[in-house]
Amino acid sequence: MDEAPRRIEIRPATPADAGAIAAIYGHHVLHGVGTFDETPPGAEEMAARMAAVAETGLPWFVAQVGDEILGYACARPYNPRSGYRFCVEDSVFVAPGACGRGLGRQLLTAVIDACTALGRTRMVAVIGDSGNQASIRLHAALGFQHVGILSRIGFKAERWLDVVLMQRELAGPSGD
Q1: What stretches of 13-167 show up as alpha helix (H) in DSSP?
Q2: Coil, helix or strand at residue 165
Q3: Domain annotation covers residue 3
Q4: Deepest of 21, 69, 116, 157, by most Cβ within 10 A of its Cβ?
C-alpha cells in the first residue's frame, strides 16, 4: 500500500529553524544565482537575519513536512528610509529536491497575507538573474507586475547578472 502524502505545514519560523534555513539558502548561494551572496551564512548569521526581520514585526515562514524544513519565505523593509515604511521586499527559497511542489507559492502567499494584515501597501520582488524563470513565474502568478530590469548589476559565477524588479499592490495606502 502506498504511503499517504505527508502534509505541508506553513508556520512562523523560530530560532530553532536557523540551521535548516541556512542550509537551504547556502545551497542557493553556492549553486545558483537567485541571490548574489557568494559565501553561505552559517546558522548563527541566519538567526541574526531572522531576528532583524522579527524586530521589524514582519513575517518569516517555513514550509515543514514531518520534521524537515523544505523552504522559507520572509519580508523585510524594502528600504530603511521612513518614506518607504509601507513597502516590503519578499524573499523565497525552496530546498533542492522540493521544487515544483507548490511550496514557494504557499510560502509567498502566507507572506503576502501577513504583510497585507500588517497594513503594508506594496511588495517588491528583487529577483536575481533575468533567467530565473521559476521565481519570475511564481511572482507573476501571485499578481506581481514586471516593473524593470537592472541590467548587468551583479557579478557571480563568472558572469554579469541582471536583477528583475516586480511589484505587487497589497492594500491601499492610508487615506486612499
Answers
A1: 18-31, 43-56, 103-117, 133-141
A2: strand
A3: no
A4: 21
